[in-house]
Design a protein that fits this description.
The chain is globular and about 60 Å long. The chain has one domain (8-386): Cytochrome P450 (Cytochrome p450, Orthogonal Bundle), CATH 1.10.630. It has 14 helices and twelve strands. Helix 4 runs parallel beside helix 14 (342-359) and helix 7 packs antiparallel against helix 8 (177-198). It is of the alpha+beta class. It is 49% helix and 10% strand.
Length: 391
């Protein structure tokens, strides 16, 4: 088996499950060469991924959660993005935003999320065709995080396009495009900082600015735009592709949406695994499945691989909208870095899928999906679909 988890070509149609299957069975803690770096350990078993994610003392999120070591970027000094910190600093950052993301806050947003889902489907229902990603799946999270941050909907949509450039493999776009997107995002965030500092309102941006300086706010803003779009956008699009690929499961879900939608969403999260990996850095020597991990080594958790582990899931290779239990790790598998937006993300996903499956019930692919050229985020970038037009 040729193992290459760095090339975006390996993820051109979703997760490379042929490689993951081989690794789990033959080399679950696999040393992976890195052409422009020291290499890393690729971890693919469910139990190991969960253990690493919960042990921040041994496996640190600092200096970065990406495989490449940061190079050529700005010197941030003592400033950090929340996702690249460990406890106790991580908890300090997380507490600034968590009141807006806890289950009670998420439930308070549900009526607005349901309303937005209806508005989004209204915009395409009469057309009979659309791009499922651009016109449906991608709009919901961009609208919701824009409203939470106190910025216009259209700006939320435009900012997410910048995160696609940040995530895309460098070889798939113009030189420096990723860094230019970061700079553009920071420039926009700086404008929000100045405006909300002078005229605070009842939004998440204003609450963060009350506790953060401009650089820390810029980093937090980028993370919220980024993470606020990834899971919902890629899960709704990738989940619908999974339903198209399994028409019996689509029919089963449409026949009992109220009963099966919650379990179907969890199965889509397991099946699609929108976040491909997270990296940690060993803070001390350790051993994992007989492999000697040296202090400073990169250790990479592959969520898509863990989510098809036969030791963790009966019929792991079967897409089952009624699966229960479903201990997937699409949101990180617990630990200090469990996805902050998981509760809101689930509500967004449920609202969009309910609208699509009930109002556009005969939706079908009208062409091949084009997947995001990334080894970090998995999901369709474009997915043309057709359906019977309706009012």
């Amino acid at each position: 088996m040729q193992i290459d988890l760095l090339s975006p070509a390996s993820f051109a149609h979703g997760q490379p499950h042929d490689q993951f299957d081989w690794l789990r069975e033959n080399d679950p803690v696999h040393w992976h060469d890195e052409p422009e770096g020291p290499g890393f350990w690729a971890v693919t078993r469910h139990v190991d991924v969960k253990a690493i994610g919960r042990d921040a003392a041994t496996f640190s999120s600092n200096p970065t959660i990406m495989i490449p070591d940061e190079a050529g970027g700005p010197d941030l000094g003592d400033h950090h993005m929340m996702i690249t910190t460990d406890p106790p600093l991580h908890g300090t950052y997380r507490r600034l935003a968590s009141p807006d993301f806890v289950p009670r806050a998420a439930r308070a947003l549900q009526p607005r999320i349901d309303e937005l889902a209806g508005v989004i489907v209204d915009q395409v229902a009469a057309r009979g065709e659309c791009d499922l990603v651009e016109d449906l799946a991608g709009l919901m999270p961009s609208y919701v995080i824009a409203e939470m941050l106190g910025i216009p909907h259209e700006d939320g949509v435009a900012l997410y396009k910048l995160t696609e450039a940040i995530h895309s493999a460098p070889e798939s776009q113009a030189p420096g495009a990723g860094m230019l997107a970061v700079v553009e995002m920071f420039n926009y965030a700086s404008g929000v900082f100045q405006e909300k500092k002078a005229n605070p309102t009842d939004d998440l941006s204003s609450r963060l600015i009350a506790s953060l300086d401009d650089i820390d706010f810029n980093l937090f803003f980028l993370l919220l735009i980024d993470a606020g779009g990834d899971t919902t956008r890629n899960l709704v699009a990738g989940g619908m592709q999974a339903l198209f690929d399994h028409p019996n499961q689509l029919a089963r879900l449409q026949a009992d949406i109220d009963g099966l939608l919650p379990s179907a969403i969890e199965e889509m999260l397991r099946w699609v695994s929108p976040v491909i990996y997270m990296r940690r850095t060993a803070m001390r020597d350790a051993e994992l499945r007989g492999r000697s991990i040296t202090k400073g080594d990169k250790v990479v958790m592959y969520y898509g691989a863990a989510n098809r582990d036969r030791d963790a899931f009966d019929g792991a290779d079967q897409f089952d909208v009624g699966r229960s239990p479903n201990d997937h790790v699409a949101f990180g598998g617990g630990g200090p870095h469990f996805c902050l937006g998981a509760h809101i993300g689930r509500l967004e996903i449920a609202a969009m899928l309910r609208q699509i499956l009930t109002r556009l019930p005969d939706m079908q692919p009208a062409g091949d999906a084009e997947w995001l050229p990334s080894n970090f985020i998995s999901g369709p970038k474009h997915l043309p679909v057709s359906f019977t037009p309706s009012r």
